[in-house]
Amino acid sequence: DQQLCRLNFGALRGLSRVLAIDGAADVLSAIAHRPLPLVRAIDLRTFPVAADGLLALQKATPNLTECYMSGHVQLEAGNIPMLRTWPSLTALSLPPSPHLTDESMQHIASLGCLQRLSLSGTPISKVGCKFLACGPAGASLTVLYLSECQKLNRGAMRQLRNMPRLAELQLQQCNRLFQGSADQHGLGQII
C-alpha cells in the first residue's frame, strides 16, 4: 500500500493544498519526501507529526503560505529556525511547546509576510513580544493569538504598540496580564 502511495505521489506536483485527516500520517510522510513547490497551505492539526517529519515537510514545501499545527506536532528547537524556509508564510498557527521561547521569536519575527499568528499556550513573555514587534513580522501582523500565555504581563502588551497593522489580539486566560485589575475590561489600562 505504501509503495503504491509513493508511485502515485509523483502525479501530485500540481497539489496546492493539503488538509490532513485522521490516519493520514503515511500520506503526509509520502508527500514530505517529494518536492511539492505548488503546495501553499497545510493543516497538521488532526494527527501526530514527528519532528523529523516536520523537517522533511519544510524542505518539500518551500512556497508555503499557510501552516496550521496543533499539540500533535512535535515542535522541537531545531524546527523553529527552519520556519525561515517558508518566507512567504502569511498564516502560522503553532502548538504550545516549551521550545517556543522568547529567543525563538526572533526566527518567527523574521517572517515579513506573516499576517496571522497563533502562539496560544506558549511561554512567550515581554522579551518575545519585543522580538515580534521589532522584526519584519511586526510590521505585517494583523491578527495575533496569545491566549493562555501565562508569562504575558503589561510590559509585554506595551511592546505590541509597535505593531502598526495589528487589528485583532486574543488574550483569553492570560492570568498575569490581568492581575491587580478587578475586571478584565479595556486594554487601554494595560497598554
Structural overview:
The protein has 191 residues and is α/β, with parallel strands linked by helices. It is built from 8 helices and 7 strands; from the N terminus they run αβαβαβαβαβααβαβ. The chain has helices at 2-8, 25-32, 51-60, 79-82, 105-109, 126-134, 136-140, 154-159; strands spanning 17-19, 41-44, 66-69, 91-93, 116-118, 143-145, 168-170. It has a 7-stranded parallel beta sheet, with no helix packed on it.
Keywords:
191 residues, 12% strand, 28% helix, disordered N terminus, 8 helices, seven-stranded parallel sheet, globular, single chain, alpha/beta
Multimerization status:
single chain
Beta-strand proportion: 5-15%
Order of helices and strands: HEHEHEHEHEHHEHE
Fraction of helical residues: 25-40%
Report on the biggest sheet: 7 strands, parallel
Give the helix tally. 8
Mean pLDDT: 79
First and last CA, distance: 56 Å
**Regions with pLDDT < 50 over 5+ consecutive residues?**
1-12, 20-24
Cα-atom Rg, whole angstroms?
18 Å
Give the CA-based shape.
Answer: globular
Strand order of the largest sheet: 1-2-3-4-5-6-7
Structural class: alpha/beta
Q: In total, how many beta strands? A: 7
Compact overview of the structure:
The protein has 191 residues and is α/β, with parallel strands linked by helices.
Q: How is the secondary structure organized here?
A:
Elements: H1 2-8, E1 17-19, H2 25-32, E2 41-44, H3 51-60, E3 66-69, H4 79-82, E4 91-93, H5 105-109, E5 116-118, H6 126-134, H7 136-140, E6 143-145, H8 154-159, E7 168-170
Parallel strand pairs: 1-2, 2-3, 3-4, 4-5, 5-6, 6-7
